[in-house]
Amino acid sequence: MGFGGRILYDLLLTLAVALITYNAIISSTTILLNPGFPGRRGAPPSRSSSDPVVQMPFDRRRAEGRRPRPFHTAVTASDSVYNAWQCRVMYYWFKKLRDATPESEMGGFTRILHSGRPDKLVNEIPTFVADPLPAGTDQGYIVLNRPWAFVQWLQKADIQEEYILMAEPDHIIVKPIPNLAKAGLGAAFPFFYIEPKKFESVLRKYYPEDRGPITDIDPIGNSPVIIEKASLLKIAPAWMNLSLAMKKNPEADKAFGWVLEMYAYAVASALNGVGNILHKDFMIQPPWDLEVGDKYIIHYTYGCDYNMKGELTYGKIGEWRFDKRSFGQKPPPRNLPLPPDGVPQSVVCFYITHA
User: Fold this and answer.
1) Secondary structure of residue 9 in the 3-state scheme
2) Are 260 and 164 in contact (CB under 8 A)?
3) Cys-Cys link to 179, which of 18, 50, 69, 273 (CB 3.0-4.6 A)?
4) Which residues of 242-275 are buried (b: 16+ CB within 10 A; e: fewer)?
């Protein structure tokens, strides 16, 4: 196995051992509601020749002497145990990769805590405390606090970098991330389940025909996205208002479900004339993506279930499994059992970061 090279793989293995001593038990009285995830029975559908995903231009990699464009990484979180252990793991690997490559464009880091009060991690992880939405506003959909938290952070925080990477607690950075944004365009990962064309009749309530074709709405969420701070300052209020409006609309709420806030960001971006370079190598999502390759982020949102032959048993609890939702009230224990032979490299890679 390799993450783009044997050296990085050895580094991750070494650091995974260090993480065993790092992963302490976190206590909290607030438990995050299960965020769910889009259902899936097999690999994502293959894309046609009209594939909206475009390759990033690589001229910036060849341009020696180009002025560095550092970006600030921001992660929103609640004060739940569920979010806390994910943030600790995420920040641990962020620091390791950034510190190991001082020439990278990975700049500062902020956990945007939308609980309205400091928690036990404020002295461990750089944290901005944001107010939650008024009680009952999120209607049990806690993700609605994310755009509101970003609005507060952008208005009040002193952010030195001119670019921002919006990430999530369940992201593991496995390769130093360059600034993938370019020429006024954001850089975003395309999700196969964000389908603006499929829901055009619903989206036209928020993106009228006189604004442009429905294809102006990119198949993205807010994360992972690298974007100019100036652009995000314009997008964030619209993202917040659209999220709230869609949640109040039964038709939109039913159509978009747990990815409603992602659709709201995509529409807000289009309304503000901010396009995105769709970078399919931004991250992988095990167990569907099997190899890490040259990807930058592992997103472990899906449960991984296997029998002892290393065969995927998705939809059925496996003899060996890792599902972040199994750890809603306490973090993963130390010395987790290793996956059986035959489990894909992508699963092994993110798993050892939690060992």
Assistant:
1) helix
2) no
3) 69
4) bbbebbebeebeebbeebbbbbbbbbbbbbbebe
pLDDT at residue number 3: 41
Mean pLDDT in the chain? 84
Residue 65 confidence class, pLDDT cut points 50, 70, 90: low
DSSP string, 165-221: EEE-TTEEE-SPPP---BTTBEEEPPPTT--TTTTHHHHTTTS-GGG--GGGS-S--
**Letter for the amino acid at 153?**
W
Distance of alpha carbon 281 from its chain centroid, rounded?
14
- Among 127-141, 252-266, 268-282, 327-341, the range scoring the smallest mean pLDDT is 327-341
Q: How far apart are CA 291 and CA 1, in angstroms?
A: 9
d(CA 349, CA 1): 9
Q: How many residues are there in the chain?
A: 355
> What pLDDT score was predicted for residue 295?
95
Which residues make beta-bridge pairs with 76? 112
SS3 351: helix
Q: Which residues of 133-154 are buried (b: 16+ CB within 10 A; e: fewer)?
A: beeeebeebbbbbbbbbbbbbb
Determine how many CB atoms are found less than 10 A away from the CB of residue 128.
18
* Strand-strand pairing, 304-306 and 320-322: antiparallel
Q: Which residue has the higher pLDDT, 10 or 24?
A: 10
Within 13 Å, how many C-alpha atoms sit on residue 307's CB side? 4
What are the CB-based long-range contacts (under 8 Å, 24+) for 126-133? 128/152, 128/153, 128/156, 128/157
Q: Which residue has the tokens 């972040």?
A: 324
pTM: 0.81
Per the CB < 8 A criterion, the answer to whether 124 and 17 are in contact is no
Q: Residue 268 in contact with residue 250, Cβ under 8 Å?
A: no
Q: Among all chains, which residue has been given the structure tokens 């919006």?
A: 166
Q: Hey, is 55 helix, strand or coil? A: coil
Percent of the chain with pLDDT over 70: 81
Closest by Cα among 293, 296, 235, 346 to 105: 296
Q: Which amino acid is at 238?
A: A
**Total Cβ atoms within 10 A of residue 14:** 11
